[in-house]
């Protein structure tokens, strides 16, 4: 029994479209596609002239990897260029370079010679900024403050040096009251310019000033490394600033903060010159030697002369993490009054950490009512971090916060470069993360990560499977699952809640050999059940084998979760070897009979489904079209009829087909056009089919696992008892408008109230129309079954953007409560910290005790829409289904 209802949602809002291209750096080799991908195109002739030869490999390198990790992306030659692209990128600042690698593995990094230098201390680097609401605080501001150079004679080095000075909008050099001044000190590995080039200090300060969150001040950015940093700062930078600008010279109007050794210099001044700076900030502090504890008189002088001492640090990947731990314990032990901002869980010792630290510190200094606690979401630092010891791990180590450590064995001790290549780039693309040689091993740490990944090593340009992987034995990649907030469906359930994966061996007359297939059976599978189980034949792609859906695609995990949730019809799934000269014959005449001989599965079209990816999609399509009456359910993931179109009878195909559903990745999926051609072929021939829309992602298992998640709840439903009503959301042009959602399937409509700006989303709330379940089955009919109602949201799609079903959530409730009835769990949206209804959520359920009669169910709906949603009309579907359950 499967019944369904769906919602037609009409949404109106007023929003400004994001200006995706406005943040692109002036590098003529960089462009932005309409979909939001950043495309890099380096002319081969120019590159070869720059590097002085023909490289073996050209790569784009930058902070484009997982959690901002420095990563490599191949720029394979095409025509006269080296092109590549990355995206869709989260808003933020990105820095990158181009690197050529020669056959002897020597490397040369460079930038486009026609682009201006972006980072003074990194001559090969360029930058680009991806705008968005989440980084509005570091975006350009019209009529902001000014940044000017200040040159002075160094008292420590006896030469001329330069600092940068930011003055606020409306700065008045003749103002009667001098401006307070904040001195920002660079690390010894940085230049003062990096505060503006990578720290975006100008934009951070301009935005704070525009928000009214900044005390009018002057900010000086300097590098004071050398033999006498104290003299360099006080007698050089500070003295020159007082001469050139209308700034305060008393402690209450002076603050200092620094990064790394700059932080050490700022803290040292607390002891040598207490009371000179009333406010001190330390970002990722590093000490050149272990400092002695301050004595009582020093502590008293520090506390007396300092209004605020605030400490900042990144996560365990910040090299100063343990140093900061020791510093905090010293302050606590000796009584130095201080504030700790907490551990930034998202980033390590990078400009992403320090930039946000600058924003926080600058908003507090010279403010009487500034708070003293850590920012929301930051963690305490109550113990040191110890990375896995060299030689102690064989496969990747994942800590409790999602930091992953990779370490090789000693077999590649003589290699010149080793990287980890995995699907952890935006949208599941493959990026290489360089490893560092430690002794005879290679090691790298990255994170925090969240979800399922698969990886391999690349040793001197040659792909190598992790030799310590004992889990994936049939594929060339190794698995890595990091528990977290995403990809719940891909995680392992406890062993007693899983189905079984067994190996089926059979003789193939088509291939002339003994062959094998994996067969998944659901938890509770009964080989003697009177009614055979429906069966799905799930096919792999080109260059793959029967192990890929198990080892890489996580099909068993997805199926296990669905069975536990009661969201799919219990079925058997057969994953065979699709590498055959005659796939339809191999499947129908060899594999399927062998599977039926071993398992209690059906052989009629109504209970047989076939699906596949890429080449497997082509094989699936050929079998479905040329063997009508065999399979009533068909799905093709990222594939079409690549080489030829077989002869088929549309009427016969339609006669037994219950559902034919077509999927594709986005424009980065190289089979995208083949899928479009397939849709045209089906339409032209009048073959009934559904198009699932575009799955955002490339040609890979990130896309295909999502496709399988979408497909499984649809299989083997009674089409007469499943209904769907189009879901439509319209976001028109405009600014700061209202988004309204109407539910029209019952004729009355519902309008969601809102929006409420949560800071990261526009939130709208409303009520699901009442759902009624009537159960009048007799005991002989129902046995000991109850029922469950589940709901699943599908993609909102427009011509320019996809809004996944994860943006819709609900809180179910019972309108007619009684014993044996239970409302389902609330499902938060992705922007609200959950997974939304992209994976079916339970609306309500009944035990055998409570099933009989009529039950009415409601739910509070939540729609969280990104504040930068592109204007347009969005369509999708929300389906409710009723299942009998044990």
From TrEMBL:
Leader sequence residues: 1-21
Alphabetic keyword roster: Signal
Annotated SUPFAM superfamilies: alpha/beta-Hydrolases
Matching PANTHER family: DIACYLGLYCEROL ACYLTRANSFERASE_MYCOLYLTRANSFERASE AG85A (PTHR48098:SF1), ENTEROCHELIN ESTERASE-RELATED (PTHR48098)
Annotated organism of origin: Cellulomonas avistercoris
Protein name as annotated: Esterase
Keyword field contains Flavoprotein: no
Gene3D superfamilies registered for this protein in UniProt: alpha/beta hydrolase, Immunoglobulins
């Amino acid at each position: 029994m499967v019944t369904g209802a769906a919602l037609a949602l009409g949404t109106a809002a007023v929003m400004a479209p994001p200006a995706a291209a406005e943040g692109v750096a002036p590098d003529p080799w960089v462009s932005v596609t309409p979909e939001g991908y950043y495309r890099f195109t380096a002319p081969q002739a120019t590159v070869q002239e720059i590097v002085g030869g023909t490289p073996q490999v050209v790569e784009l390198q930058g902070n484009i990897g997982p959690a901002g990790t420095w990563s490599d992306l191949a720029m394979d030659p095409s025509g006269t260029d080296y092109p590549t692209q990355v995206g869709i990128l989260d808003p933020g600042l990105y820095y990158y370079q181009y690197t050529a690698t020669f056959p002897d593995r020597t490397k040369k990094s460079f930038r486009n010679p026609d682009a201006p230098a972006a980072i003074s201390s990194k001559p090969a680097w360029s930058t680009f900024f991806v705008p968005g609401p989440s980084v509005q605080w570091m975006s350009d501001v019209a009529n902001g403050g000014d940044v000017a150079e200040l040159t002075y004679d160094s008292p420590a080095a006896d030469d001329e040096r330069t600092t940068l000075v930011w003055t606020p909008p409306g700065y008045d050099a003749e103002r009667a009251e001098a401006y307070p001044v904040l001195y920002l000190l660079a690390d010894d590995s940085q230049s003062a310019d990096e505060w503006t080039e990578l720290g975006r200090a100008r934009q951070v300060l301009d935005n704070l000033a525009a928000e009214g969150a900044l005390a009018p001040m002057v900010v000086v950015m300097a590098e004071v490394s050398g033999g006498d940093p104290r003299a360099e700062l006080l007698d050089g930078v500070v003295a020159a600033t007082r001469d050139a600008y209308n700034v305060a010279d008393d402690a209450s109007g002076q603050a200092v903060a620094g990064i790394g050794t700059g932080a050490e210099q700022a803290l040292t001044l607390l002891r040598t010159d207490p009371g000179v700076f009333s406010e001190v900030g330390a970002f990722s502090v590093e000490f050149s030697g272990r400092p002695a504890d301050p004595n009582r008189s020093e502590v008293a002088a520090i506390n007396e002369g300092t209004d605020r001492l605030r400490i900042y640090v990144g996560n365990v990947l910040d090299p100063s993490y343990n140093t900061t731990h020791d510093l905090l314990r010293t302050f606590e032990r000796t009584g130095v009054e201080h504030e700790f901002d907490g551990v930034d869980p998202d980033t390590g010792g990078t400009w992403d950490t320090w930039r946000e630290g600058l924003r926080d510190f600058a908003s507090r200094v010279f403010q009487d009512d500034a708070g003293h606690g850590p920012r929301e979401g930051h963690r305490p630092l109550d113990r040191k971090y110890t990375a896995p010891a060299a030689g102690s791990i064989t496969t990747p180590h994942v800590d409790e916060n999602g930091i992953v450590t990779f370490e090789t064995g000693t077999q590649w001790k003589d290699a010149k470069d080793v990287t980890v290549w995995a699907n952890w780039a935006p949208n599941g693309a493959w990026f290489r993360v360089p490893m560092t040689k430690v002794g005879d091993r290679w090691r790298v740490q990255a994170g925090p990560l969240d979800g399922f990944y698969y990886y391999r090593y690349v040793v001197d340009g040659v792909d190598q499977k992790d030799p310590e992987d004992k889990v994936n034995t049939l594929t060339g990649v190794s698995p890595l699952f990091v528990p977290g907030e995403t990809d719940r469906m891909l995680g392992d359930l406890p062993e007693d809640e899983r189905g079984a994966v067994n190996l089926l061996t059979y003789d193939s007359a088509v291939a002339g050999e003994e062959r094998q297939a994996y067969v998944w059976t659901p938890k509770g599978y009964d080989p003697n059940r009177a009614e055979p189980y429906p069966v799905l034949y799930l096919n792999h792609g080109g260059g793959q084998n029967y192990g890929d859906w198990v080892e890489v695609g996580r099909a068993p995990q997805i199926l296990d979760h669905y069975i536990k949730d009661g969201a799919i019809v219990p079925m058997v799934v057969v994953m065979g070897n699709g590498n055959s000269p005659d796939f339809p014959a191999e499947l129908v005449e060899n594999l399927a009979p062998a599977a039926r001989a071993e398992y209690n599965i059906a052989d009629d079209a109504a209970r047989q489904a076939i699906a596949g990816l890429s080449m497997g999609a082509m094989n699936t399509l050929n079998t479905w079209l040329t063997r009508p009456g065999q399979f009533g359910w068909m799905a093709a993931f990222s594939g079409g009829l690549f080489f030829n179109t077989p002869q088929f009878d549309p009427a016969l195909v339609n006669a037994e087909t219950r559902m034919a559903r077509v999927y594709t990745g986005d424009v980065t999926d190289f089979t995208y056009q083949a899928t479009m051609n397939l849709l045209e072929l089906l339409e032209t021939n009048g073959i009934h089919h559904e198009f699932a829309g575009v799955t955002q992602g490339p040609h890979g298992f990130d896309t295909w696992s999502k496709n399988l998640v979408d497909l499984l709840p649809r299989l083997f439903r009674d089409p007469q008892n499943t209904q769907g009503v189009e879901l439509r959301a319209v976001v028109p042009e405009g600014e700061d408008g209202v988004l309204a959602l109407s539910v029209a399937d019952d004729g009355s409509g519902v309008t969601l109230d809102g929006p409420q700006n949560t800071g990261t989303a526009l939130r709208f709330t409303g009520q699901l129309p009442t759902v009624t379940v009537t159960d009048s089955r007799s005991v002989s009919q129902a046995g000991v079954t109850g029922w469950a109602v589940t709901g699943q949201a599908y993609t909102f799609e427009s011509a320019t953007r996809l809004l996944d079903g994860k943006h819709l959530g609900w809180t179910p409730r019972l309108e007619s409560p009684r014993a044996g009835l239970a409302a389902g769990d609330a499902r938060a949206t992705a922007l609200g910290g959950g997974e939304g209804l992209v994976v079916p959520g339970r609306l309500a359920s009944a035990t055998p005790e409570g099933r009989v009669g009529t039950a009415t169910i409601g739910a509070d709906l939540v729609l969280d829409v990104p504040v930068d949603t592109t204007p347009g009309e969005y369509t999708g579907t929300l389906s409710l289904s009723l299942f009998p359950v044990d």
